[in-house]
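Ticket opened by: R.M.
Priority: normal
Category: complex prediction / small molecule

The reporter submitted a protein together with cobalamin and asked that the result be attached to this ticket for the collaborator who will pick it up next week. Submitted input follows.
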Amino acid sequence: MANDGLSAGAAARRLGVAVTTLRTWHQRYGLGPSRHEPGHHRRYTVEDMVRLQVMQRLTAQGVAPAEAAAWARRSPDPAAPEPNPDSPASFAGAVAPADSDEPVLRAAAAAARESILSLVESGALIPDVRPGDGRAGGGQTIALGPRADPAARGLARAAMRLDAPSMRYILESAVTHRGVISAWNDVMMPVLIGIGERYEATERFVEVEHLLSRSVTEALSIVPRPARDLDPRVLLAAADEEQHTLPLEALAAALAENGVPSRLLGARVPSRALLDAVDRTGPAVVVLWSQLPGTGDVTQLEHLLSLPHPPLVVAAAGPGWPIADLPPLVTPLSGLAEAVRVASAANA
Ligand code: B12
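Result attached by the on-call engineer:
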């Protein structure tokens, strides 16, 4: 690109969009050309082109234009030093001698592409999608430890603002780019535990907990499920009267990522219904989740073990189970990665 920037026509051609689209992005979303010489049309600079690349890429992925523009406006200046040395996004590669032509644009484009996803994922860029969002949380925060992942921080902020699009963006990016186990352990779980503590201390923020739970469910459901001709040999269920299911949803998604299909019965499965399901489907593994001590009744596990054809593995998962009093043949599970290992091995 010449030093004096690109005309609208040239910029549109480079981006592969119509000139009218560029005009719309300028007029509606403020993503216009910034170089202005008196007596000449405005020109698009390298920085403008980086922002437009972000806009183009996000809208192509189905992000609403207003939201995409919010991200694009916050894109770092490619010529500025990288603000966060830990961030994999590096705009340093976009810095080139001022008089260089195509390489600058190519580097800026590549840097923009690389950086969008990592910045979104890191939680460093949270678009202000809706005006007034700042008010919604009333300055309240979800406490996370000092070593919390930046994406978890971004998620906590978005959750307190009841900002579902941003939550969804952060969560889906985490699932897609890190995989389910890390997305759950490093991003979802700390924020869920944090909002639980906030609720316990204040008896407020149930609305935050509900919207966050819903967003987690939606993000976990984007993981493609294994082919339909594979018969699921893993059965996942919450104990009788147990409404907490998110860890099982994470387990189903993590297993799917490993090509292992599962049946997830969901919340509050009465013991009789669980036994009937096992009888009809003959699973190799049953994972029963209890979050609350009140639902961790071990007779549910004993009944499973005394079936004429018991599953190979009967696993107790969740903090509700009395670990010391579990029947000897029950496998206790303490984390998602372990659950994936045990269920995958028994399924093989
Ligand atoms: C989301 C949520 C809900 C949602 C659930 C939505 C859903 N679809 O699952 C809804 C709104 C339904 C809900 C309801 C209630 N909830 Co609730 N909820 C939560 C919250 C925020 C997250 C739950 C979760 O997914 N936990 C899983 C992970 C994130 O947390 P964890 O269990 O502590 O993780 C540990 C282990 O389980 C293990 N682990 C983590 N992930 C995995 C995965 C696998 C596969 C394995 C094996 C292990 C494992 O590692 C962690 C470290 O040890 C928790 C907070 C919390 N700390 O859990 C409160 C929490 C569990 N809820 C609580 C309460 C009080 C309730 C209600 C009674 C509220 C009410 N008054 O109605 C009801 C209970 C209804 C019922 N009978 O079940 C309390 C329970 C306190 C207690 N120990 O008794 C908590 C702890 C909040 C708090 N701090 O006060 N809740």
